[in-house]
Amino acid sequence: MRLMDIKDNTMNEYVVNWTLNEICNFNCAYCFNKKKDLKSKFKFSEKILSKKIYKNILNLKETAKVLLIGGEPFLHEDIIKICKVLTKKFHVTIATNLSIEKKIQEFVNCIDPASIDRLNISCHIEEREKRKEVYDLIRNIDLLRKKGFNFILNYVLYPSLMNRFIDDYAFFNSYGIKIQPKFVRGNFDDKFYPYAYDHEIKNKFLIIEKNEFSNSMPINARGLQCHINSNKIKIDNGVIRKCSYDKFQNNFSNAHNKFKFDSDPVICKNKLCNCTARFKFADFKEVHYYLYEGLFLYVYGDLKGSKEYFCKVLTCDNKFSPAYNNLGVIEYDLGNFKEANKFFYDAMSIHQNNSLYVKNYVLSLLKLEETEKAKNFCVEFLKSRKNERIFDLSEKISRKENFDLRPEISIEFNPE
Q1: Burial of 183 (C-beta count, 10 Å sphere; 0-12/13-18/19+)
Q2: Which of 5, 70, 242, 324 is the most exposed place for a label (fewest CB within 10 A)?
Q3: Residue 280 — pLDDT band, cuts 50, 70, 90?
């Protein structure tokens, strides 16, 4: 399914994203919910609060989609009861590590598989090996299959796992289980992923069909009009939010109140967004879909395909600076530093104060062995403004340090 199809299929659905708890029995390096005290019952959503929440959910139309997440949802003492109530009216999706065997057994025996859209199972291979539970996972997946449940097994492509990813892919495939590779999103070793994967890693992606990957990519949507408040809510500890990525604004009620939706769009304030609302932006144009597709193909390692989509962006809007920048990044990656320099200059000419474009332009000058020009450019840029990114780069050039910085891809959908 391509991006333009997704927009049409999601605009009219109510979506409820309910965080049942904030604790997990796993301790994965890349997770924001580290292992916590499982005996601490007050960490769970209170029974009364849970009851109020699902009563409010039941007031929604039958077409609503409900996603239950955690922590680990099957650690919630009322998970089976909640599923029984919700599945009487809605299709439910659950994100789980599928390790709480007693609850899993109870779940498959009393919940109709037809009422579950999908179980999003996280592989977490290193954690399972520590716990000696790899084959327990396979057994629990077999149980789901026999009962007719739909599921996917996600594998987070954390940089430290890349040396083993292909072997793990083959291992699960030998048991008839296809894993869905999922790009890691966030900072690791001062690099921003998924855009920081190097060529060696991307070459491993290419043996797998791109439609097997989870294609959720982080973007900077700040300034665009978003319709997320018209059909989506996020429930955390009884607080109902319009947006998963804005924890301090747009909270519009608590779980004691009836859910309310608003047809008027809001202005996105987030520099980083990777939720499905990216397909509900009121002013999302064809140029944005092309940019998004180009970003996905760049991370996947298809530089030729990525380049074609960034060129399509410029066919729609020849002043859309991120496309020039990203074409420069591709040429830089291919070793075509002169061509990269031209693209970075074009991007910078449109938005002169964008420090990412300036940094990339200076890096291309260094590759062309125009060190003095690079140094002077930084100095001139800093005369009229303070910028930590360019200041640090200028200092490194002045000290004649040996450094291996790569230019950065632009994920701005509303460039400035």
Answers
A1: buried
A2: 5
A3: low
